[in-house]
Amino acid sequence: MDNKEPGDDLFDRLDTASLNEHLRSLMDGLTVKVFRTYNASITLQQQLAKLTRAEDNVHQKMLSYNRANRMVAILCNHQRAVPKGHEKAMGNLEQKIKDKKNELKEAKAELEKARGAAKEKAQKKVDRLKEQLKKLKIARTDRDENKQIALSTSKLNYLDPRISVAWCKKFDVPIEKVFNKTLREKFRWAIDMTMSSDEEYIF
């Protein structure tokens, strides 16, 4: 602590290359990234267990997944500036929610008047619109919570993909919701390994 000013780096003479060299002398292949990967993966697994509810629909489960992934991104400091189009996108979502609420209000009024077979049809319409409104509200929450976090960086570089695949398998969430086509090809080994196993993968 000698000759240090507030704001100075504590380990100013230590760099990643020399630290990795020391770690490799202790164990072959051990680097700083191994610790980062472990912390990221264990955090994802713990957060998924804490946040996911089996009774939720797919949209709610994906909100939980993104929240767990967001905790990892914050841990790894994967932050970004708010995207330029964020406000416009949020405005569009707000308008869609407003329109859907009006549509639901009209559908409820129609349901009140409906009789016989028309009543069942009107009820189905109300139920469908309620589900669509819920989906839009989840999308709004998810988009706003993610505005300053880069979720893709940790997913691509620091997370054991088997955790995500096992979560999809356990909670009946399509893999496509978590991994785009490029990531599905990159992590084909993890998908095949986890999906073909009778045991739940635990990191």
From TrEMBL:
GO molecular function: DNA binding; DNA topoisomerase type I (single strand cut, ATP-independent) activity
Listed InterPro entries: DNA_brk_join_enz, TopoI, TopoI_C_dom, TopoI_cat_a-hlx-sub_euk, TopoI_cat_a/b-sub_euk, TopoI_cat_euk, TopoI_euk, TopoIB_AS
Similarity comment: family membership: Belongs to the type IB topoisomerase family.
EC number: 5.6.2.1
Main EC class the enzyme belongs to: isomerase
This protein's UniProt keywords: Coiled coil, DNA-binding, Isomerase, Topoisomerase
A single Gene Ontology CC term: chromosome
Keyword check for DNA-binding: yes
Residue numbers annotated as active site: Y158
Superkingdom of origin: Eukaryota
Keyword Coiled coil annotated: yes
UniProt domain DNA topoisomerase I eukaryotic-type: residue ranges: 1-172
Record field: catalytic activity: ATP-independent breakage of single-stranded DNA, followed by passage and rejoining
Protein name, as recorded: DNA topoisomerase
Coiled coil: 90-146
SMART domains: TOPEUc
GO term, biological process aspect, one: DNA topological change
Any single Pfam family the record assigns to this protein: Topo_C_assoc
Entry-linked SUPFAM superfamilies: DNA breaking-rejoining enzymes, Eukaryotic DNA topoisomerase I, dispensable insert domain
